[in-house]
């Protein structure tokens, strides 16, 4: 029912076939969007090959390296998009990282470097990418990012990533207020726990998933494709009146008190 034909969508954060970004990319493609994909470059090119092979069936017309800790790479990415497409309609931000040692144990023991790294990649990158995307969203657009319940409530071992997600959710609101006059909408999806490459670094992630399956109203957690459906909706004209919001896609877990 969703039709994104004629829309150009840039998806960041695909690492493998368990990535939430991969679920989103599939659903955007199914809705007819023209896809662009970024990957995290490494010296041996392993990430590039893995992501390229995975997304090949979706036939992305833009495939670029983009390390969000490198301003030159961010600028080059959006320059390439402007040259290839001329405009950008949809930006999907699925980027988060914290050192593994900062995702277990005592939060007060978070290192200065670990704190800075987590917020730079997981939080600031949304603002930086939105600033680069704004000039290309000439006809308006939609920016969607990924958050988690740990940004508003204490989740064991989530630690510094909870601070990063809290900052990310507030960034969504400030960006929505700034970009709204340009008809650019900014929203976040708070997904239930899903076993991904990123979440596997969180201590006790399987216990978290099992707990949600027992407590959530739907008695299960959610899938990457379910999150992808919501991202596709938020990227479409059907969501034209929605901005600055955090939508929970977590089988209802967020509403439970105990």
From TrEMBL:
The keyword NAD applies. It catalyses: a 2,3-saturated acyl-[ACP] + NAD(+) = a (2E)-enoyl-[ACP] + NADH + H(+). GO terms for biological process: fatty acid biosynthetic process. CDD domains: ENR_SDR (cd05372). Signal peptide: none annotated. Coiled coil: none annotated. Substrate binds at residue 98. Transmembrane segments: none annotated. Homotetramer. Belongs to the short-chain dehydrogenases/reductases (SDR) family. FabI subfamily. This is Enoyl-[acyl-carrier-protein] reductase [NADH]. It comes from Coleofasciculus chthonoplastes PCC 7420.
